Amino acid sequence: MIPISYFIVLSFILFFLGIVAFFVKKDLLTQFMAVEIMLNAANLAFIAFAKSANALDGQVIVFFVITVAGAEAAIGLAIILLIFRHRKTIKTEDINLMKG
Amino acid sequence: MTDFFWLIPFFPLVSAILFVIFGRRFPKKYVSFQACFAVLASFMLAAISFFSLLNAGPSHSLLEKNLFSWIDAGSFKVNLSFQFDSLTAVMVLVVSLVAFLIHVYSIGYMSEDKSYTRYFTYLNLFVFSMLVLVMASNLVLMFVGWEGVGLCSYLLIGFWFEKHSAANAGKKAFIVNRIGDAGFLIGLLFIFVHVGSTEFSAINEAVLGGVLTPALATLIGILLFIGATGKSAQLPLYIWLPDAMEGPTPVSALIHAATMVTAGVYMVARMNLLYSMSLTASNIIAVVGGLTALFAATMALTQNDIKRILAYSTISQLGYMFIGCGVGAYAAGIFHLYTHAFFKSLLFLAAGSVIHALSGELNVQKMGGLRKYLPRTYYPFLIGAIAIAGIPFFSGFFSKDAILTHAFAQGQYIVWAMGILGAVMTAFYMFRLIFLTFHGKERLEPDVKKHIHESPPIMTIPLAILAFFSIIAGYIGLPAVVGKKYNWFGHFLDPVILSSHEAHISMGTEWFLILISVAVSIAGIFIAYIFYIRKTQIPSTLVKKFPFIYKLLYNKYYVDEAYNAVFVNPMIRGSEIIYDDFDLKIIDGAVNGSAKTAAWSGKLLSRFQTGFLKDYALIFLLGAILVIGFLLF
Question: Model confidence over A48-71: pLDDT tens digits?
């Protein structure tokens, strides 16, 4: 039996990698993948805690999160596609329409 | 039936309300019918109430009806209550009868107008307001009617509001009346403070009980009279009435000749006990009336606009009514009001008929010789002119003579002289008008002449009826030389005119006075005949000889110009200064300043909105760390 701390540490590492990737990478698609990694890091933590606490709640939540993440990924990709079509770029430093 | 006398004003009101709601859907014929019928119903009920009052005898000289308590605020109590006594009866009968005839006449006169229903709505509303004014049993309700007629007057002067001059004339009438109304309102408040009530009966009791000191009575009397000078177009507030002629002619006849402008006279007569306490206030009224009678008559001498001549004549005649009230002959003043209502509305309607026939021509210099084209207009006009000129056996003679005799008897010789001088001029300018319009050479524009036509019967029949009244109306108030008991009119008013103090002059003097006033009337007509029929070159030679006087009269003493220079222009300039310095700089500055502060702080805060995704994400991350850190430690 693998102790729970391993899972938590893995989850932390994944999450941290996600954050770093988000800030380092310049194109929207990679950043989007970084966000997905963070999301799955959180999923991993949920399952690990659920297993150790012997409760099903955490696992049920993960199902929900995966479902929502699937939908969100579809919409996110569609948005990225549209931005690309519109502006011929997905570099985030070129996209600053919301500047006050 | 007499229990329902208070319904008299409500027929026209209901009619006006129906017009407002359903007016667009009513066919023209029905509009005419309903408008006239509502006023006729008021007249019928007024006549019934009048006869029951007459039969009830002196012990029941007053009908009263308290509908409900209208204002009840602390000690300030006002009832919505109506009364019907002999003075009210005279006013209500005159108002509703003349109004009915003018409604009928308007059917013909306004038939081509596109705002036909709007016209009759205003006219009905006016009749309602006027009836409220004369039937109110307290000053506050009277003030409501007073303002109501002012509003209707404004609406009807500016009836053709597309015309710039008409809209301006309406505004002028409204604003000038406001000045008078301010005086009226202050007087009303003084009465309330010192009497504790605004009911006429309470005011009379207070006067009889000595609650009001003479000084106070003078003050209140003058304040109320300021209101009357506004509404009844006396010096110095008469300037709105000539301009009011911009309205449709039947309106000039009804509102600006026969009824509304007499409201001031009615009010003074209603408050006769108060005025009898103050010789000063009475003298002011008599002198203002005399001056107005004289000056307005001189202004009428040289005018060329047919309606303006009649307007100045109205101002002048109102002056006579105030002379009557000022010398304590309230019954004579009201008597003149009553006869004047007939012959002046007759003159206006006949003038309207002339204007109608000449497709809107107003200038008497471009008329002449119309007698053969418009016989059914000419004879009523002539009767009206004879009546107003004061030729014996016509109504105007009896009433004007009664006023002047009383003025003389009271020792007001100067006022009497002003009245006599005014009478010469009245006869002169009226017959100048007749001769220029109906006699002499034709000076018509050719294209006007082509369309000349006599007015339809719906217009000439009211003229005939009014002409009939202009002849006979005077016979209910015969002068004292015939016998005191024949002054039925005066005796009928006795229960209301509580203050009459008959001054006695000998029969010989009275005959002499009558002779003088007849002589001056005939002299005036004779001069007009010489000037405008016999030797038509005389007026132009006179103009050449005395250009200064002619110019002064023709420009109405430059009163409008003087008012513009002294009051209107400084007001406008002052407003401009305040607009520039206060409105634009301080008020607008405060508003714009707060907006600018908001915009500036917004701009400052918007620096955080860089538009870069990573900046937002960073702030988000820091925020999350902060929250977690806060929760953990």
Answer: 999 888 888 888 999 999 999 999
User: Residues of A with CB below 8 A from B603's CB?
Assistant: 100
Which pair of structure tokens corresponds to residue B421?
Answer: 């001088």
Among A79, A92, A94, the residue to mutate for chain B (most B Cβ within 10 A): A92
**Which chain A positions have a beta carbon within 8 Å of B605's beta carbon?**
100
Q: Which residues contact B189 (CB under 8 A, 6 or more apart)?
A: none
Q: Which amino acid is at A80?
A: I
For B611-631, the pLDDT digits (tens) are 888 888 888 899 999 999 999
Give the angle B302-B308-B313 at the CA atoms, nearest 5°.
80
Q: Do B611 and A100 touch (CB under 8 A)?
A: yes
Q: What is the dihedral of CA B542, B543, B544, B547, to 10 degrees?
A: 120
- The CA radius of gyration of chain B, in Å to the nearest whole number, is 30
**Distance between CA atoms of residues B614 and B612, nearest Å:** 6
Residue type, B508: G
- Taking only residues 584 to 613 of chain B, the set having a beta carbon closer than 8 angstroms to any beta carbon of chain A reads 603, 605-613
Q: What is the ipTM of this complex?
A: 0.84
Q: What angle do CA B136, B174, B161 make, to 5 degrees?
A: 120
pLDDT digits (tens, 9 = 90+) for B172-224: 999 999 999 999 999 999 999 888 888 888 888 888 888 888 889 899 999 99
Nearest CA in chain B to A28: B613
Phi then psi for B411, rounded to 5 degrees?
A: 80, 15
Amino acid, res. B313: S
3-state secondary structure of B304: coil
Q: B398 Cβ partners below 8 Å, 6+ apart?
A: B335, B339, B474, B475, B477, B478, B479
Distance CA(B267)–CA(B274), nearest Å, equals 11
Our CA dihedral for B567, B569, B574, B578, rounded to 10 degrees, sits at 130
For chain B (633 residues), the mean pLDDT of every run of 10, in chain order, is 81 93 87 92 92 77 83 86 90 93 91 88 93 92 93 91 90 91 92 88 87 88 92 88 89 88 92 88 92 91 89 93 90 91 92 87 82 88 91 88 88 89 92 89 80 85 92 83 75 76 74 89 90 82 83 83 87 91 89 93 85 86 93 89
Contact (Cβ atoms closer than 8 angstroms) between residue B323 and residue B407: yes
Query: What pLDDT is recorded for position A87?
Result: 86
Q: Do A23 and B618 touch (CB under 8 A)?
A: yes
The reported pLDDT for the residue numbered B452 is 83
Q: Report all structural domains of chain A as residue ranges with CATH numbers, in order of start.
A: 4-87 (1.10.287.3510)
Length of chain B: 633
pTM: 0.80
Within 8 A by CB and 6+ apart from B229, the residues are B180, B235, B236, B237, B238, B264, B288
Judging contacts by C-beta atoms under 8 Å, the chain B residues touching residue A31 are 613
CA distance to B20, B353, B457, per residue, from B29 (Å): 16, 21, 16
Which amino acid makes up residue B165?
S
Fill in the amino acid letter for B21.
I
| Residues 6 or more apart in contact with residue B7 via CB below 8 angstroms | B45
Cα nearest neighbour of B615 on chain A: A23
Distance CA B315, CA B241 (A): 8
Peptide bond into B12 cis (omega under 30): no
Contact status of B625 with chain A (Cβ, < 8 Å): no
Query: B617 in contact with A at a CB cutoff of 8 Å?
Result: yes
Residue of chain A whose alpha carbon sits nearest to that of B610: A99
